[in-house]
BOLA1 protein (Elachura formosa), 132 residues
Amino acid sequence: ATPLSCSASPMRGPLLAAAGGAMPGAGGALARTIRAKLTAALQPTYLEVRDDSSRHGGPPGAETHFGVLVVSGRFAGLPLLQRHRLVHEALRAELAGPLHALQVTARTPEQWQSDPRVPPAPPCLGGSKRDP
């Protein structure tokens, strides 16, 4: 098995965390909250938090759009919808407030080991304030 590392991650955008080697203080307050809540709720063997906010036309430091990759044994035997519900439940307060969009990739450790590819972040369809 190949060891998992942040540098080998196919995720785009600023990488903010990885379980087992979390970077304290990386990212803004919301990124740190997302990382802490998902870690507490799901005890992931691997976790990445990606801030995609800058791709969506908000002001610098807005922290409104994120992608997460969560690899957890808690997902074993659960359909994808239930896995996403666990992530959303852990981030309920953030989704009701500052967090506008969340892309979730939820895998078991076995799934992640057999296929560590992550789907690309969806394009912004809301219209960037930076577009002409």
